[in-house]
Give the backbone structure.
Amino acid sequence: VSAGPAMQVRKAAVIGAGVIGSGWAARFLLNGIDVEVYDPDPELARKLAAVLANARVAMTRLLPDALPAEGKLVISPSVAEAVRSADFIQESLPEREDVKQSTLDQIEAAARPDVIIGSSTSGLLPSRLQSGMRHPGRFIVGHPFNPVYLLPLVEICGGAATTEATRARAEAFYRSLGMQPLSVRKEIDGFIADRLLEALWREALWLVRDGVATTAEIDDAIRYGAGLRWAFMGTFLIYRVAGGEAGMRHFLNQFGPALKLPWTRLEAPDLTDELADRIAEQSDDQAGGVSIRELERLRDNCLVSILAALRRSDFAAGATLRRYGEELAIRAPKDRARIDESQPLALHQTTVLADWIDYNGHMTESRYLEVFGNATDAVLEYIGAGPSYVAQGHSYFTVETHIRHLEEAGEGARLRVTTQILGSDAKRLHLFHALVRDADGTLLATGEHMLLHVDARARRSAAARGGVLKAVERLSKAQASLPVPRGAGRAIGAPLA
Ligand SMILES: NC(=O)c1ccc[n+]([C@@H]2O[C@H](COP(=O)([O-])OP(=O)(O)OC[C@H]3O[C@@H](n4cnc5c(N)ncnc54)[C@H](O)[C@@H]3O)[C@@H](O)[C@H]2O)c1
């Protein structure tokens, strides 16, 4: 993973691996980075494995064919061991200034002096945390959100001694992990997001204390309304739209006076035993016996659905995810030299996701065409007819398809597609895909497709251009002596009465 000038992160150290640190470990590993973890918790290995399992499921659903090979996880016996050979260090210790400062001291005693130390603190000031450091310029806050492996936001906040180079390199690194860095302009307690969340939280506590609403009713007030629109437009953009055609100024004129009414309170209520009991009881009722682990999985499933939907709109967190997927595809090692063009090309792999399964308990038919379509795209990319060729106004359109379903595919199965070139000329490319289960090599389906080369501006067929046509001719020649695969050239195999 390259992260700005001269920063290659092959190994990251995670110091403190509770809720947040284990989420960081998962994000690093799923980006192909090796991780060394230090945390004195005797149950560390079990907890890490559970978080990593959830993260793997969620990220595979989001990016089924783009994730790199996972990094290697090592549990270290000490802070010094964990950081000694790390290229990046992320601290996620308990939110106590003294604990963080004394551990930073141990980290600096063993780590290379140029390695960046990111802190997950939710609100402690970086200038104070770095005040006793030998090399304070490399310290920066990278404040993530739970679950760290799914939510893109990371607030970046430097202290007085943090260098600009550290800020730039940390931002580039977090971005390379699929995150959306938000640079905090002024060092301030709680940064930006937690100040907003705390304001809402204080008011919610009053509503429970005064018996106005239960914890479940307060959550309903968010999740059926404002929460849905917050997820992609935040507060200001939504209020602008709420102002109608006159926009933000009209909105301020209309609702400004209400700000003077005592609708909300600023001081939090005292967290008396009585209030704490009431919140805990209401929260138990609300959860209805569902365990935290189950709630985490439900939360992840819902986040994956929202992120995938936003990707289709190429907006907000969905735009971040789309860019990340594209970068992963570019970064994936493409060992062209080792591809034997005289055999069917193995250019596409994927995994059967839970929502690909239909009422018959196996991969549903529309997904076969999706997989074959992606395999065709991989072939087009291979011959030089990928996105930049399309941007120049040339493309291939699929004009005919025949799919045979031979065996069933279940959830989680790893699939690979191999592609034989059955024929070609300047305008035509005739492909035959074989979809195989990776584990046992079983042939699951075949897809035969005729593609026509087009001038995308005129929307008419036209001969393929120089390098693409050469690649098509080279491949066709290399595969000319392969036997015609079984099932090629078929239409529906039943006589019409
Ligand atoms: N929980 C959240 O939603 C959230 C969100 C963003 C940031 N943060 C911040 O992340 C940090 C960690 O929070 P958390 O929620 O993961 O807490 P946590 O209590 O779940 O995890 C803290 C971990 O640190 C370990 N630890 C304690 N002393 C240690 C030491 N000396 N060396 C190494 N490990 C040690 C503990 O065993 C524990 O596993 C805090 O700074 C917190 O403010 C939390």
